[in-house]
Amino acid sequence: MSTITIHRPEELSLPLRRSWHRAMDESPDYANPFLAPEFAAGIGRHRGGARVAVLHEGEEAVGFLPYERNALGVGRAIGLGLSDAQALVHRPGVTWDTRELLRACGLSVFEFDHLVEEQKPFGAYVTGTFASPAIDLKDGDDAGYAEWLRGAYPGLAKTTLKKERRLARDLGEMRFVFDERDPAALRTLMRWKSAQYRRTGRMDRFARPWIVELVEQLFQVREEHFTGVLSVVYAGDRPVAAHFGPRSRTVFAPWFTAYDPDLQYYSPGLIMHLRMAEAAGRDGVRLMDLGRGDKEWKDWLKTRELRVGEGFAVRPHPVATAHRLWRRPVRGLRNTVLAHPRLREPADRLLKTVGTLRTTGRMGSGTRTGGGTGSGPAPRRNTGGQRGANAQGNSTPKRNASAQGNAAPRRER
Fold it and tell me: Other C-beta atoms within 10 Å of 11: how many?
């Protein structure tokens, strides 16, 4: 077993961060920006229990496990609920004893829900594996967006381009900015997203000040292994849709997507994701990891699926037993609902009804509606789940019979 030292993620020395980056570079499994030290440091600035276990072989740092720990020794992957890739990032050939690792971290249990498939020492603790749709991106060229779209997505091209032309006629010339640096556009995105969460009965992430501050801070990060990218679709001077998410040199991780609800007829979320895929490919990205979750727009766009695991790594301890007895049934119920359309569709409708009552104030004067504003009717297909929720907006193009349908949310981004 390697020697293990424990650090605050935002206090890692420059040599340790460089060793972490080197481990990311040496394996494509760890190229996701959610596995970068910059993301862990961002979480660490807002979460007092954030730590990084560093594995050493001799004088060399060869492995990094970011995690969060509470006072009882219950641990979870750093940013659980926000991060869509989790792992002990390590150099090739490095292994570890999971129970000894937990003991060194002061943990009785370590919970994860997007564990990278490569993590063999955690394998015995995985309770389920799930598809994480992804898009393989080709080298960009100068052919132009319309030609790229027809070649990459011939089934979607006609409908999407038609809607873009109609949007341009109605509001003004279409313009897409892949890397928008205007903080006002980021505030617009968070306002739209907050309204969407409340409109659809989901937890409003942007009602939590620390998440707002985290996103604002990550927006400023411009590093090789983690850059916060804000993308905006404009019609004339009016923002139509926006997205914020991180990228590394080769992997882009869509995270928060929202659009002007008054313009849902034009499918602005779908336009956003197609524009991002084209622009990211031109900028050297080779993979868009869309994240765990069954949604039609992901099924339309994916070229393959990654696999991620959820579970609880434990060592013998009463706290670990109690935590697992509490959390595992909750996860099991959620996964059952997500796996069966006959269950998830009523659940989705119920959440929408709750959201409508909240936003119209019909749940009583004491109901808290959260921050942000929004207008217009809720989208016809407002699917919950992971990143980029409601990507397609209303009146989305029809596809083949393999569509998954709506997904009841566990977390909506």
Answer: 10
Instruction: Return the percent helix, strand and coil in the chain, to nearest 5.
Output: 40, 25, 35
- Cα 119–121–127 angle (5° rounding)? 75
Q: Mapping DSSP to helix (H, G, I), strand (E, B) and coil, where does residue 172 land?
A: coil
Count Cβ atoms below 10 Å from residue 13 Cβ, excluding itself. Answer: 10
Contacts of 299 (CB under 8 A, 6+ apart): 133, 399, 402, 403, 404
Quick one: DSSP state of residue 52?
A: E
Give 89's strand partners: 64
pLDDT tens digits for range 241-254:
999 999 999 999 99
Distances (CA, A) of 162 to 40, 271, 340, 358, 397: 42, 11, 34, 35, 11
403 in helix, strand or coil? coil
Distances (CA, A) of 204 to 21, 254, 300, 369, 370: 33, 18, 27, 9, 7
E-state strands within 37-158? 50-57, 60-69, 74-77, 89-90, 109-116, 126-136
DSSP letter at 379 equals: P
pLDDT per residue over 167-204, tens digit each? 999 999 999 999 999 999 999 999 999 999 999 888 99
Strands 251-252 and 287-289: parallel
Tell me how far apart the alpha carbons of residues 209 and 206 are, in angstroms, rounded to a whole number: 7
How far, in Å, CA of 90 to CA of 101, rounded? Answer: 14
Evaluated on CA atoms 36, 37, 42, 47, the torsion sign reads positive
pTM: 0.80
- Determine the Cα angle at 411 with ends 406 and 413, to 5°: 85
Q: How far apart are the C-alpha atoms of 96 and 302, rounded to whole Å?
A: 34
